[in-house]
Design brief:
alpha+beta, Fructose-1,6-Bisphosphatase, Chain A, domain 1, D-Maltodextrin-Binding Protein, domain 2, globular, binds 2,5-anhydro-1,6-di-O-phosphono-D-mannitol, binds magnesium ion
């Protein structure tokens, strides 16, 4: 089959300015300049090359492997990213299988691990297993300098000590990337068969952090970067289907796992969130503890008295990846705001808030704390929490305006 819809869309991207170049970030990297309105990303795209699939197999479609291979071929500067995503692709398939089998009586992944993570939560066996799985898969690519995970107390240095302990590692000369992840977000839901997900963010590694093979102190702080520095973000959703949703700063690509062939297949090449919505996705039991602008805006939406006039319905799984996935596809406003008890809410900035905000903005949505663009916040510590509201542009903007009006009173 010649020229699929996908080819057309990518061609449209090229026509829109994503043309071949020798820029440092080849695959349509976007930079965000700070603006007067912090919640409106200003995008100045560098010229890039996007793949065009003029021949697509009717039976298989475009696999994630092929997608990344073409990206790497067209953009040698980010070829190493393809290796990294090869490991992430395999890990997501493996985690999908683990989650599915976890409720079998014979499964070894049932029940608590008996350990407590840095945030004082019981770590389930699956948390531990999936963390280990991702960590090892990424480490063996040889493209990774440092990683940070919800399940690790501190960032893990894969260049220095961690490397020496792993004598069978393939050591590359350059360790280009820093990966942050939550290996199994919403894992407490697994026993009830509720969707869970893996969230991943990729930053560039500061090349100056290794001098003459010695790891400098600044290596581990490489993790503490603002979302605006993200090179790539992705999530895997383990649900009725297994989804892999990716951005390389050039829109959002959604792949679905075809279990018959064990490959993620491109299902939607240009995911765009509806600009206005009528779906609320919050733990509304906390509403009396939220800030006034947050509370009032949600009350208005529930009553159909907001800017759009839409009367909102509630949809809340309590599993961020599932809630954000539905929000991206159908439109809506998802959030975990701060409250009087937890001023920064519950979600973690580095490996939950920032990567999901990157995807949301790339799909045309917004992500805010109410007063700040989440992507522009630099974490002070790895496990820092952030109040967050993301989703359909016009609705999230209404909330931002409510905060601005409240602060000018
Ligand atoms: P976890 O990282 O411990 O799995 O918790 C994160 C999850 C998110 O997926 C979800 O949005 C939120 O916690 C739900 O919290 P609550 O149960 O308070 O509504
Ligand atoms: Mg989590």
């Amino acid at each position: 089959m010649k020229l699929s819809v996908f080819a057309f869309l990518l061609t449209a991207n090229v026509a829109a300015g994503f043309t071949p170049s020798s820029s440092s970030h080849a695959f349509t990297t976007q930079t965000f300049a700070s603006t007067a309105d912090a919640d409106t990303p200003t995008m100045s795209r560098t010229q890039t090359t996007a793949p065009v699939f003029d021949e697509v197999c009717d039976t298989v479609g475009v696999t994630l492997t092929r997608f990344m291979a073409e990206v790497a071929m067209l953009n040698p500067e980010i070829a190493e990213l393809a290796t990294l995503f090869g490991a992430i692709d395999t890990s997501c398939k493996a985690i999908s299988g683990l989650v599915k089998r976890s409720q079998l009586p014979s499964s070894e992944t049932l029940g608590y691990q008996g350990e407590v993570n840095i945030q004082g939560e019981d770590q389930k066996k699956l948390d531990v297993i999936t963390n280990d799985l991702l960590k090892r898969a990424l480490r063996f690519t040889g493209r990774l300098g440092v990683l940070a995970s919800e399940e690790e107390d501190e960032p893990v240095d894969l260049v220095g000590k961690g490397r020496q302990e792993q004598t069978d590692l393939i050591v590359e000369e350059t360790d280009k990337y820093v990966v942050v992840f939550d290996p199994l977000d919403g894992s407490s839901n697994v026993d009830a068969g509720i969707p869970t997900g893996t969230i991943i963010g990729v930053y560039e590694h500061d090349e100056n952090c290794v001098v003459d093979g010695e790891v400098q102190d600044n290596c581990l702080t490489n993790c503490l970067q603002a979302g605006t520095n993200l090179v790539a973000s992705a999530y895997c959703l383990y649900s009725s289907s297994t989804f892999f949703v990716l951005t390389l700063g050039n829109g959002v690509y959604m792949f679905t796992l075809d279990e018959n062939i064990g490959e993620f297949i491109l299902a939607k090449p240009d995911v765009k969130i509806p600009e206005t919505s009528s779906i609320l996705s919050f733990n509304e039991a906390n509403i009396d503890k939220w800030d006034e602008p947050m509370k009032e805006t949600v009350y208005k939406w529930r009553e159909g008295k907001g800017k759009s006039g839409n009367r909102f319905s509630s949809r809340y799984i309590g599993s961020m990846v599932g809630d954000v996935h539905r929000t991206l596809l159908y439109g809506g406003v998802f959030g975990y705001p701060g409250d009087t008890k937890n001023v920064n809410g519950k979600l973690r900035l580095l490996y939950e808030g920032a990567p999901m905000s990157f995807l949301m903005e790339q799909a045309g949505g917004l992500s805010t704390t109410g007063t700040e663009r989440v992507m522009e916040i630099t974490p002070d510590v790895v496990h820092q929490r952030v109040p967050i509201v993301m989703g359909s542009k016009n609705d999230v903007q209404e909330l931002i305006d409510a905060y601005a009006a409240a602060s000018s009173k």
